[in-house]
Amino acid sequence: MIIDYRSDTVTRPGPGMLAAMSTARVGDDVFGEDPSINELEQMTATLFGMEAALFCPSGTMTNQIAIKCHTQAGDEVICDESSHVYQYEGGGIAFNSGASVKLIQGNLGRITAEQVAAAIQPDDVHRPHTSLVSLENTSNRGGGSCYELAEIKKIQALCRERGLSFHLDGARLWNAMVARNESAVQYGAAFDSISVCLSKSLGCPVGSLLVGKKTLIHKARRIRKVFGGGMRQAGFLAAAGIYALQNNISRLAEDHQHAKTLAAALAEKSFVKMLLPVETNIIIFELKEGHSAPDLVARLKEAQIYGYAIAPNRVRLVVHLDISADMIQQTIDTIKKY
Ligand SMILES: *Cc1c(COP(=O)(O)O)cnc(C)c1O
């Protein structure tokens, strides 16, 4: 049996989710007539205490739509240098919005209000116009690190004062909320827009949502159509999302425990130079000199354990719904022999 830690996107829908999908009521969502999509959007908006939500095929699309909503060509977006919106969305900020980025060197993907303040451009015709600050929680490249809500509130206050929009890439926000015992409403109150994924830690086959004010989501719906993301009887996918929101959030604590157990075993290995702090479901570790990440990943693959070499000396393992306690034990037993 393959134990797949490459990403939390590799999960397959289980019997409960499949049953919910196969019995979903559907309609044409571009006409606004899919009852399951409407229910999922309403449910998510309510969960965050925000006015409206929009279901999209991917987190890249929800992020890119949000950026398009908040900026004009020639504007600048402030974000951490490791952000998904900058590193892993194909240059979409430039491609879709004609905006540039002001990159900040954060701490494990997290930036501070002080850093944001220093990155805002002065009102000068030579300079790009700063219009948006984008955070990522949890931070993917930061090893699933979580923000302090107090720092987010400081950045929010700064954005208000300086007239900037404030977006959250919350692909794994569910993990942060469970790890830090926070509520969705606290996040809804802090941001102008939030992107959340159903296809990662919550175990859905497809789907992300953008949450925000009615006016923003109205604009976002138009942009989604332009981007080719208007789907028809997508209620089958929304039904998976409704099932996931109802059943798969609190269980994330189990994934976090599994990640910590596995990380503790890795920390004992002589070939491991350092591990990023494990707060949620992502383990990133660096190998000592003379060891190569692709080599280790290849060796693990022979034992049917799949990981990901994110750098020549760095390996990432992601724990998720389809990783059982037995699989964690089997992985630890294998690593012990190395
Ligand atoms: C996965 C991910 C996304 C969205 O990815 P899609 O594959 O387009 O759904 C966005 N932000 C972060 C931090 C991610 O890890």
Commentary on this structure:
The structure is a single chain. With 338 residues, the protein is an alpha/beta fold. It folds into two domains: 15-247, Type I PLP-dependent aspartate aminotransferase-like (Major domain) (Aspartate Aminotransferase, domain 2), CATH 3.40.640; 251-336, Aspartate Aminotransferase, domain 1 (Alpha-Beta Complex), CATH 3.90.1150.10. The protein has 14 helices and 13 strands. A seven-stranded mixed beta sheet has the order 2-8-7-6-5-3-4, with helices on both faces. A four-stranded antiparallel beta sheet has the order 9-10-13-12, with helices on one face. A hairpin with a 6-residue loop joins strand 9 (272-275) and strand 10 (282-287). The protein is globular and about 60 Å long. The model has no long low-confidence stretch (mean pLDDT 98). Pyridoxal-5'-phosphate is lined by residues 58-60, 63, 84, 136, 140, 169, 171, 197, 199-200, 208.
